[in-house]
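Predict structure. Input: Dipeptide/oligopeptide/nickel ABC transporter ATP-binding protein, 332 residues.
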Amino acid sequence: MSETFEEDAINPVLLIDSLKVYFRTKGGYVKAADEVSTFVNEGGVTGLAGESGSGKSTVVSQVFRILPKNGEYLGGKVLFKNKDLMKMNLKEFSKEVRWKRMSLIPQASMDALDPVYRIKDQMLETILEHEDVSKAEAMERIYKSLESVGVPQEKAEMFPHELSGGQRQRVIIAMALLLNPDLVIADEPTTALDVITQAQIVSLLKGLQQSRGFSMMMVTHDLSLLAGVSDMVTIMYAGKVVELGGVDKIYSSPLHPYTQLLIKSIPDVRKWRERKLVSIPGYPPDLIDPPRGCRFHPRCPLAMPICKEKEPELLRVEPRHYVACHVTGVRR
Ligand SMILES: Nc1ncnc2c1ncn2[C@@H]1O[C@H](COP(=O)(O)OP(=O)(O)OP(=O)(O)O)[C@@H](O)[C@H]1O
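Output follows.
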């Protein structure tokens, strides 16, 4: 890792250091997550943002140990409360960490819940697999948990297809919180929901995060979703972290040219008359054979000769602000 984060990661619940995960394909290795580093502080929320294909889900899959078969972990640390998850065997991870201490809220989709089981049975299984409690106690907890996400108790008797998309996502959130995890990873939790439901789910998650005090990593391709939710934002481009910083810094003074363009591409409803929406010219690169040097250089308005030759390191340019850019990443 270029920087240790030690000045800004205060008791981090999760610290990812130079994580490298590639996918084996017929055409060669897809360099999906290449030396990715970021952290989530205790009680904090770190957003992980970037265009589709930038490697966000690859990072999450490796942290949660659900990488597809052709995925290869090639190095890096994933410290969860100072313990390297990459050194833990899968059995121990499933028993001790997954769902119990770290849980995942996947995209809102029909596959996230098992269609043949009633909601209550899926929730019961999660509790009884990990904890030695009576069925009555577990049911009590299920009802409370459904109530906390705004789903009436009687829905526990239903099958997933009998709920609306928004209700299903609320149930998934309730399931993720059943065992009181320290860290929740929300991977595009509002994709596939309508705009109003999206806003409700985001504010529900933020409310629960604050009232229950868990830490969260929120993954999204929509940077605007993170504004009121996260305290840190990590920006990924083509398998690399290009910028990481406090949410205020990322929104008000982004340094990486890619982040600057991303911010300009967020529609602002209040200023829609005066603001011109910017789209980023060009396409993200092929990750089997990414450009040399900075992976963003072919699309970068500020690119210099060095950007084609040398890969920029992620450097701390000021407190709580890291940038990987030869042009703008200078220490202040
Ligand atoms: N199983 C796989 N085999 C081969 N390549 C893969 C596999 N899964 C993902 N990739 C590739 O890895 C890169 C990163 O994908 P990833 O899904 O992590 O990105 P993402 O930022 O999460 O995108 P999205 O927001 O669309 O989910 C992409 O180029 C993608 O095509």
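The two ends are 20 Å apart (CA to CA).
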